[in-house]
Design brief:
This protein has 331 residues and is α/β, with parallel strands linked by helices. It is 44% helix and 18% strand.
Amino acid sequence: MLRKVTQGFVIAAIAATSMIAADKINGAGATFPAPCYYDWAYNYQKATKTRVNYQSIGSGGGIKQVSERIVDFGATDAPLTPKELDKAKLTQFPAVIGSIVVAHNLPGVADEKLKLKNSVVAEIFAGTITMWNDPKIAADNAGVNLPAEKIIVAHRSDGSGTTYVFTDYLSEASKMWKSKFGTGKAIGWATGVGGKGNEGVTNLIKQTPYSIGYIENAYKEKNNLSAATLQTAEGKWVTATLPNFQKAVKQAKWSKKDHFYSSLVMQDGSYPIVAATFILLPREKAEENAQVIKFFDHSFRYGDKAATKLGYIALPVETTNLVREYWAETK
């Protein structure tokens, strides 16, 4: 009798565990879209009672955890190539679009008042321009108080899709950067201090006068930081605004065949550092993937306003329709 009762408790416990698992989705990865995913998860739980637990650990961590099947989905700002996806047996689709700004803590200089040529940004992060009153900075900033202070560069210390996108931009903007540093989720920085995640770099900039760093625009907006005015691919000055981000989005060349592998940096006439962030799913986990897809489908349908409010750009309807076709073909 005792054995039957014990078995009953075990069966009940297993059933309860399965029920909890069915009502919870685990994801991890990029810090770039984290504020948006948190908002989407909150609204999805209110609508469906299903909890989405997202860990903002960086793109490198997200790729690693989904590749090892630790989480239901991974998130990365650095899209994987078709070859990399085949090797890890993953699928990939874009979720939302954001932008990276060059934020600074330059006392007395307001948002958008500092102008930095793309080539000058590359030299600052390469450590060849080291002072705020350097003639190459001063040439484009008449009337701006540029102190004789050392520039303190803040960069990511972890494997980061934000770093991948930022260094992709620098590689497009500067032959020097491309040959010396290149593009990557982690590089050998010549100068500066590292922070973990967009959160860490944001805090470094906030707490360090005369600093400069690269962060996702939502973190800049949320923390009331100042950012530099940059250049379009043609050399025109451009600010980090929604219309200037959308100009890059309109030029996106998405392809289901390539699992949406694409770059949006340095598009004609647009703000130069725009990027999609991507979701990675294990190919063999059809049941779990169906739950993840329900979450993102709901967010595509009802999350546009939340994304825009946080400083992101929702995927165009044409793109979300293409993603839905991709989901159907990769089940």
